[in-house]
Amino acid sequence: MQLIVTAISKDYGNIAAVSQVSFQINSGDIFALLGPNGAGKSSIIRMLVGMTLPDSGSILVSHQDQHYDHVPRRLLGYLPEDRGLYPDKSIEKNLLYLAQLHGLTKQKALKEMAHWLEVFELTERRHEDLKQLSKGNQQKVQLIAAVLHRPALVILDEPFSGLDPLNQEKVVVFLKALKAQGMTVILSAHQMAMVEKLADHMLLMAQGKIILAGTLADIKQQAGLQRQMMISCTEPVALEQLQQWLPDLDIQALSSTRFSIKLAPQHSVSASLKQLLNQLELSQVEMQAPDLHQLYLTAMANHQCKDQA
Fold first, then answer.
1. Same domain, 232 and 213
2. If you write DSSP's letter for every residue of 278-307 in order, what string do you get?
3. Are 11 and 152 found together in one domain?
4. Is the pTM for the entire model greater than 0.85?
5. Are residues 193 and 212 in the same domain?
6. Burial track 107-116 (b if 16+ CB lie within 10 A, e otherwise)
7. Which of 95, 116, 152, 254 has the most CB atoms around its CB within 10 Å?
8. Could you list the residue range(s) of the whole structural domain that residue 252 is in?
9. What is the spatial distance between Cα 152 and Cα 1, in angstroms, rounded to a whole number?
C-alpha cells in the first residue's frame, strides 16, 4: 500500500484545520503524525479514512494495482481516540464481534485472537467483561481489535494512552511486529520517546500547517538544534582558557574539569576535538544529540514565536 497526500486543506467555518499539507507513506512504513491538540492531526485522519473530504488537494491510495481517494474500510484497521468497545461483554465476545464485522470467519477470528491475547498476556482473562479490566488492559483489547483482521493499513490514535511504561514498551514491540509483517502504520501520539523508537518518517504540525517533516535525521537537520559535546579533563582548566581555544563555541563549566560545549551544524566535531587535544588531556568525551522530545518542544516554541512576531 502507498498513500500520496498532495496539498490537502480543510476548513471548518473560519477555522483552517489543515492547510496545504503534503506527505507520502510507503508500504510497511511507520508514519507519525505529531503536534499539540488542535494541530490538525485528527482532521487528516478523518480525510484519509473517508469520513470527510478535503476542500482542496488530493489523496491517492494505491494497493495491488487499485487506486482510491481514501483508505477503503476493508483495508483499514483503526484505533480511535474515543474507544468503541462494549464494557458489559467479554474480551472474547468484543473481539469476535468486531472481527466478524471485518469479514473474518469465527474460526479465523479465534485463531488470530489467540495469538494476540498471548502477545498481550490476556489469554487467561478472555472471558472477563471489559468493565472488569484496567484502562490499560482495555487499551490492549482495542489495539487487538484494530489488527485482528490483518489490514493493509492501521491508524492508531494515541495507542499508548492509559499504559504504564512496561506496557508502552510492549506496544512498541507490537508495532515493530506489524511492520515486520508488512503492515503500514499511521501513529498519532504525544509520547515522543516511544515515537522516536518507531517512526520511519514523521510530520510535526501546528495550527494545521507542517512545521517539520521527514526522517528523524531530516528533522534534526531542519530544526538546526545544536549538538552538545561533554568533555572531562584530567586536570582542572579555566573556562576562560577553553573559550580562548574555541572562541566560536558556547561553553559552560559544569565543574573545574567537566564542560558542556554546544556545536552548531556548521561546527566540526573532529576539528573542535583536535583543537582541544592540542592544548590539554581529555579523560572522557560524550556527544549528546537532541532527542525528539526536545526537537518537538523547540519546534513548537519557534512556531509560536513566529506567529506572535
1. no
2. TT--EEEEEEE---HHHHHHHHHHHHHHHH
3. yes
4. no
5. yes
6. eebeebbeeb
7. 95
8. 226-288
9. 7
